[in-house]
């Protein structure tokens, strides 16, 4: 008699309730619950509704009248802070020559005081191009917000589609997540999140091709993401290690390669670097000073209230001193790199047990290290983390706790700035606003530490990235066992 797993090759549960595929291999949470085509369309429609809510949230700050520069009046800043509808998109309409439709980077630079001029913006070049395109046919900050939302919304819905294909129902965390309402149009981050998600999709869902070919394509996408915002570039390292060790269970090594696919790993590194260079080189050649100024601005950026990092909140009042600024400028990046190394090391140790280098989980842990230890932690960075809540099957308690802490920070910080702007009491004992900020700052920091560990200890929800935990399982994939790491 056949058991529930072997019967007709269907997916089923064993006596312990563990989901297994036709081969009897373990399947991660979410496997077998993929969306149909109609379901994927519905998922994208739900995302569209959430994006509309996100736009409406930010559009509350626009109008009703505009001054000679196209800035919303009256009391733009007080309304943006007081109603918690602030967005960098609307704010940067003035001050970066966007309102003058100046092509970015080519004509400008940075002053000795650290101020940008001549169309330079503080972001990598592809984000600068998005900003320029969004301003092309408008003459107010309200028009700029609306046009930018139209440019960014397709990236948000594409991310939902890819997450639905990858993670099944967990993609609803993206489609209906509060961060999409709070931050979708806070900055230009939807484009970079789409690039990072597309890279995972390419490795694990793209039909046909070898692991080498799929991963090189994914590396190109990560390179494009780095040309929007830098963070997808960090995921090249775990992807490289995944390819080096032969992918799932070590079973995707090319013919003739017995242990490590050095050539495939080099291809991943080379493709990502070549993409970044190809995108940046024209700007560097045409306007080197303007191109360099965007990087110089970020290097010089001080730890202050606008950065929202633990370095500002944890070391007050010393964080206002020049000596502290110089120290954190060195210590912060070193600690970020140390967190990357730790995540990769723990991922390598996990590979020794399971046969698969968990590149998605390691990427998620690296992002946690970056968010915690970098000197800047802008509110919209939560959008970077949100897809990993779908891609990795961390417990729901982690997710709910993080979203609550994030909302307290994301809303509380602007209410707190409103109190400062209007000269009201801002002490921790003066009301819930300051308390919410502190809960958000330190709750979020503690949760990032916990999530760093949780991501590395949890299965991916991408079913063809499941771990092959026994030699028998490994022989079922590609006909070859993983090579022990020694």
Element pattern in H and E: EEHEEHHEEHHHHHHHHHHHHHHHH
Strand order of the largest sheet: 1-2
On the 0-100 scale, what is the average pLDDT?
Answer: 88
* Share of residues in helices: 55-70%
Q: Can you describe this structure?
A:
- Helices cover 58% and strands 2% of the residues.
- The protein is built from 19 helices and six strands.
- The strands form three sheets. A two-stranded antiparallel sheet has the order 1-2. The protein has a two-stranded antiparallel sheet with strand order 3-4. A two-stranded antiparallel sheet has the order 5-6.
- It is globular and about 70 Å long.
- The model is unreliable at 1-32 and 465-486 (pLDDT under 50).
Keywords:
486 residues, mainly alpha, two-stranded antiparallel sheet, 6 strands, 58% helix, globular, disordered N terminus, transmembrane helix, PIG-M, alpha-1,4-mannosyltransferase activity, UCP010361
Secondary structure: elements and pairs:
Blueprint: E1 12-13, E2 19-20, H1 37-59, E3 65-66, E4 72-73, H2 76-82, H3 88-91, E5 109-110, E6 116-117, H4 125-135, H5 141-167, H6 172-175, H7 178-183, H8 190-205, H9 211-226, H10 236-244, H11 262-286, H12 288-300, H13 310-314, H14 322-354, H15 359-373, H16 382-391, H17 396-421, H18 432-457, H19 471-475
Antiparallel strand pairs: 1-2, 3-4, 5-6
């Amino acid at each position: 008699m056949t058991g529930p797993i072997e019967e007709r090759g269907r997916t089923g549960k064993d006596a312990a309730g563990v989901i297994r595929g036709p081969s009897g291999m373990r399947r991660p949470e979410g496997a077998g619950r993929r969306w149909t085509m109609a379901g994927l369309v519905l998922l994208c429609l739900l995302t569209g509704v959430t994006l509309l809510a996100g736009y409406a949230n930010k559009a509350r700050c626009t109008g009703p009248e505009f001054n000679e520069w196209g800035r919303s009046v009256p009391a733009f800043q007080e309304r943006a802070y007081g109603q918690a509808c602030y967005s960098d998109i609307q704010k940067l309409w003035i001050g970066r020559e966007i309102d003058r439709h100046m092509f970015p980077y080519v004509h400008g630079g940075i002053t000795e005081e650290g101020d940008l001029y001549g169309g330079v913006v503080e972001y990598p070049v592809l984000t600068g191009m998005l900003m320029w395109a969004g301003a092309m046919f408008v003459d107010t900050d309200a028009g700029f917000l609306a046009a930018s939302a139209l440019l960014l919304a397709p990236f948000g819905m594409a991310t939902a589609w890819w997450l639905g294909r990858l993670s099944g129902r967990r993609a609803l965390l993206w489609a209906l997540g509060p961060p999409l309402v709070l931050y979708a149009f806070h900055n230009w981050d939807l484009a970079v999140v789409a690039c990072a998600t597309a890279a995972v999709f390419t490795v694990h869902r793209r039909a046909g091709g070898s692991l080498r070919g799929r991963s090189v394509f994914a590396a190109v996408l990560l390179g494009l993401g780095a040309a929007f915002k830098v963070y997808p570039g960090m995921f090249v390292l775990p992807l490289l290690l995944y390819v080096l060790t032969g992918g799932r269970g070590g079973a995707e090594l090319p013919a003739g390669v017995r242990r490590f696919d050095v050539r495939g790993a080099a291809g991943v590194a080379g493709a990502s670097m070549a993409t970044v260079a190809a995108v940046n080189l024209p700007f560097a050649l045409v306007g080197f000073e303007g191109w360099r100024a965007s990087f110089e601005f970020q290097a010089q950026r001080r730890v202050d209230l606008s950065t929202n990092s633990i370095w500002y909140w944890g070391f007050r009042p010393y964080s206002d001193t020049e000596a502290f600024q110089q120290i954190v400028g060195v210590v912060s990046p070193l600690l970020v790199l140390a967190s990357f190394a730790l995540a990769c090391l723990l991922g390598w140790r996990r590979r020794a047990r399971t046969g698969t280098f968990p590149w998605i989980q390691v990427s998620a842990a690296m992002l946690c290290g970056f968010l915690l230890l970098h000197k800047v932690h802008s509110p919209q960075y939560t959008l970077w983390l949100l897809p990993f809540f779908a891609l990795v099957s961390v417990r729901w308690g982690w997710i709910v706790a993080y979203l609550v802490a994030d909302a307290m920070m994301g809303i509380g910080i602007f209410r707190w700035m409103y109190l400062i702007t209007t000269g009201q009491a801002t002490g921790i004992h003066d009301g819930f606003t300051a308390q919410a900020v502190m809960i958000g700052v330190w709750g979020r920091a503690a949760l990032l530490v916990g999530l760093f560990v949780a991501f590395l200890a949890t299965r991916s929800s991408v079913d063809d990235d499941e771990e092959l935990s026994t030699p028998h399982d490994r022989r079922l994939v590609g006909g070859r066992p993983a090579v022990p790491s020694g």
